[in-house]
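Troubleshooting: if your tokenizer reports a length mismatch, compare your output against this known-good record of 558 residues.
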Amino acid sequence: MHSRYTDVFNESIALAETPSCSSSSSSSEKMHSNHLLLEEPIRMASILESSKSTFFPAMSRIVGTLGINSQSVETISACLKAGMSVARFDFSWGDAEFHQKTLENLKIAIKSTKKLCAVMLDTVGPELQVVNKSERPVSLQEETLVVLTPDQDKEATSNLLPINFSGLAKAVKKGDTIFIGQYLFTGSETTSVWLEVTEVNGEDVVCLIKNSATLSGPLYTLHVSQIRIDLPTLTDKDKEVISTWGVRNNIDFLSLSYTRHAEDVRHAREFLSKLGDLNQTQIFAKIENVEGLNHFDEILQEADGIILSRGNLGIDLPPEKVFLFQKAAVYKCNMAGKPAVVTRVVDSMTDNLRPTRAEATDVANAVLDGSDAILLGAETLRGLYPVETISIVGKICAEAEKVFNQDLYFKRTVKYVGEPMTHLESIASSAVVRAAIKVKASVIICFTSSGRAARLIAKYRPTMPVLSVVIPRVKTNQLRWKFSGAFEARQSLIVRGLFPMLADPRHPAESTGATNESILKVALDYGKSSGVIKSHDRLVICQKIGDASVVKIIELED
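Known-good structure output:
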């Protein structure tokens, strides 16, 4: 059964054998730092030091799902202040009107807090659902039988569950495992249930209940372990939502649920290309099952980023394999310079004010693995403590970043890219990142119009923030003028260590003279007001002048 995972995980196993870059470390320290991108040694006294609050809570980004308990302007404003940089709108539940109201409140919150935030639309995809129209709780008893039927007119009971898919009977066989849980389920044995297929009867599937549970609420998802469901990745419902709600709101990211092949991403991109400004929308492939895992390399090549949907993956994969996939997938994303987003880290905070010890460690390990962002689902959507969840996840990320072994990561990335490097990658890695670390710069300022240079710099994980000054370009279609740049700025908000600001469009990114002093002053003022730049700090500035990339190191006076 496990042989199908071997190729995907080979690279992560090879990672553990990478030579240590610290010749002075003992052999045990070498082994430790090879398995984790962890700086050595860690002073025990530093663990007891209180964390200092900063303008940027962490270099890692936080994607928050907005919904029932996070719809008000006050709550969204608090989420932005706590560190949320991308707002996710999940269309698996709620109608367009509800999500529109939430988005309007987000716009108000952005203006009042002066915190930039990107918008992500999450598609439903080929998701199987149990339909409970009455919304009355359904109790399921261990070792009894329950029938899954495509007849949605029937009422959900303890021995009959209507589902939204008529092809389940053709997809499963006796002995297959089916998991049912509340959408964004926590896996709690009291609210989710494991079933074993005992018989297929026409379009109905008869199952043995493996644990007692109570299903409450209108919507439960159904996941069949390692079985292909013959439904399109981008459904007609998804297309309708994207072409109406998505177009109206100029979404920055499309989260493509249940991505199984590279063709899924190509199909979605072709669809977006016909929808005006949405041709700039970035597509993040959500890997949720073994089929997506087996085609991971091709999917990564086509997608703009990857979301590791560990909830469903944890059902499709044996539990002992999930961490291995995470490390391999995040590494591949890092080397490709594409954002890696990890989900399902602090499930218990849906109902509790503090995460478990295991969850806190899980967040830190995601950062040490190289993840760009943490995605919060139920914790912020229907959780009791959305703001506190964002805040504590940000604090854990910030602590993990302090001991992230940038030197080892840098050498590994340079080795992977190989020679000859492209001109821009060489400038980003050596002239900018290495120089900034050597002179102990407090910040890197990068002038860009497409955002590509800034993302390349962030790829090498500098230890200081990268302030990406996005300078709009003027475009015309012979009928009207418009500026580009807003998309590029917001799309930086999911990249670790990248902090965008929109510049005055009258200042070109590719100046023919020296670095434009007025626009630099705006960037410096922003840095000073946010507390990342102080008197006597050294800064590294990257700008394109004509055909040349120019890197400057400046030291601020009083």
